[in-house]
Design a protein that fits this description.
This protein has 402 residues and is of the alpha+beta class. The chain has 9 helices and 17 strands.
Length: 402
């Protein structure tokens, strides 16, 4: 029996995905539920598991954009598993930058493999003969990506004065991120306001309770729980920051779904902490750890990255001292955390050394006024500089569940 494997829907509103990488080769024997491909949507990279065991025939190439519901491979379920032969399976990995496809500028004909129909069409449109291309596919096969990367000779060399040049196709996820960032810059009245936070109180609390906290709850007492709960408090005080524009209407939320920007193997991921207003320090830390691990391992789902009402971005982990974060549309605000550096500051008329952090709030001025934006950031600063009063109700052990 020949089973047609179709592209499943990765999530609502997604109609197309891209074959990022085949993890098996044409003709391999695959086991049921074995990961056979990685597919990129405009929101996440997901694994495609084999629906049944059998011999696989690939019907799409790496880099092909295919519609949800389209057939991407066939599985011959009547085929027997070869004895003593294990199928060659590639480990999932982040996309590797592909070198530009060499174009023949001499009279020599390359011993190249056949070109796929899609590749032939693209090369024909460019006026490039298939014999002028070195295919990167199996047995020298010219793939669609080879054709896309191919450049007519016209005297142009592959390298520039002996220096290598690489050309790589942006993943669908990266292209979507780029579109959203440009959209945020062009379609919102984005402004950024800054402040600074004395992190001494949080340092002292973490120094005193972090070991006990970790032993009790199995997660560390990091900065994200303090920032998340400080943001929740500020959003309650300034609800306009927890709102969005929808056409001629403003939508406000009585809950706080906080998006956390993290760096994953496929680029920037923004998983969401749902109902953060109901979480304790332990709850926030556990959820941050869970989502960060899933993003790092490429297991994050579309549903886990959609629906946030406000975003926190921590550029400080990479050493950033100051930045203007870009709004994550359709949200109206994003808080940027930065590097913590000991600096001399004036306290009660004396110069002292304190661990200081710059914070930045980028906001959509169409619905958030300066008074609200500044007030929100000051509220965050107040909570971080006096967490015992504003975040712990003056009962540290109860707040940390110790």
């Amino acid at each position: 029996m020949i089973l047609e494997m179709k592209v499943p829907s990765p999530g609502e509103s997604i109609t197309e995905v891209e074959i990022a990488e085949w993890l098996v080769q044409d003709g391999d024997y695959v086991e049921k539920d074995q990961a056979i491909a990685e597919v990129d949507s405009d929101k996440a990279t997901l694994e495609l598991p084999a629906e049944e065991s059998g011999t696989i025939t690939l019907k799409a190439e790496e880099g092909d954009a295919v519609e949800v519901g389209a057939v991407v491979c066939l599985i011959d379920t009547s085929a027997s598993k070869p004895e003593g032969i294990q199928p060659e399976v590639k480990e999932p990995s982040a996309p590797v930058a592909a070198a530009p496809v060499p174009v023949n500028t001499s009279n020599t004909t390359y011993a190249s493999g056949a070109a796929s129909p899609a590749a032939k069409k693209i090369l024909a449109e460019k006026g490039i003969d298939t014999s002028a291309i070195l295919g990167t596919g199996k047995d020298g096969r010219i793939t669609k990506e080879d054709a896309v990367n191919a450049v007519p000779s016209m005297g142009q060399k592959v390298d520039v004065d002996g220096r290598g040049v690489k050309r790589s196709k942006l993943s669908m996820l990266r292209r979507k991120v780029a579109e959203r960032l440009v959209s945020a810059k062009n379609e919102t009245a984005m402004l950024t306001t800054f402040n600074e936070v004395d992190m001494s109180p949080i340092f002292e609390l973490r120094k005193q309770y972090k070991e006990t906290f970790k032993e009790k709850h199995g997660v560390g007492l990091g900065f994200m729980s303090f920032f998340t709960l400080a943001v929740v408090r500020a959003l309650k005080l300034f609800p306009a920051v927890n709102s969005m524009i929808d056409g001629k209407e403003m939508i406000s939320y009585d809950f706080c779904d906080i998006s956390i920007a993290v760096s994953g193997p496929k680029g920037l991921m923004v998983p969401v902490i749902r109902n953060a207003e109901n979480l304790s320090f332990r709850g926030v830390e556990a959820e941050v750890k869970r989502l960060a691990i899933r993003a790092r391992d490429g297991q994050i789902t579309v549903d886990e990255m959609t629906g946030g009402t406000f975003t926190i971005s921590n550029g400080g982990v990479f050493g950033s001292m100051l930045s203007t974060p870009i709004i994550n549309p359709p949200q109206s605000g994003i808080l940027g955390m930065h590097n913590i550096i000991e600096r001399p500051v004036a306290v009660d008329g004396k110069v002292v050394i304190r661990p200081m952090m710059y914070v930045a709030l980028s906001y959509d001025h169409r619905i958030i006024d300066g008074k609200e934006s500044v007030g929100f950031l000051v509220a965050v600063k107040e909570a971080l500089e006096n967490p015992q009063e504003h975040l712990m109700s003056n009962d540290v052990k109860k707040a940390l569940e110790l």
